[in-house]
Design brief:
YjbR; 6-stranded antiparallel β-sheet; YjbR/MT2646/Rv2570-like; 6 strands; alpha+beta; globular; single chain; Aspartate Aminotransferase, domain 1
Length: 117
Amino acid sequence: MNIEVARDYCLSKKGCEESFPFDEDTLVFKVMGKMFAVLMLEKPDMIVVKCDAGYAAELRDEYTAVEPAWHFNKKYWNQIHFNADVEDELIFRLIDHSLDEVVKKFTRKMKAEYDSM
């Protein structure tokens, strides 16, 4: 996995937009204004994704490449280092899981709008 592949995968998600809301090095991926993934250009060897709290803890216990995300709520956000002990397929699934975690918190109106995209 690398930063370009991760970026392309995030951008392939329905309704995804990318921006630099914090600084010129932190690339944020959002759907309907809600963040689901982050790539840091100064640290191109990892991605930050949202996760169910229990699953986040399990992943940290199982993989050395998965850590609590720095500057994020560590209960829900993990940083995953590329080219370590996490297979690319799992990283793709965790990006999907992150998006699902965000979408499930949408209001009914937001959900209907998202579903109609």
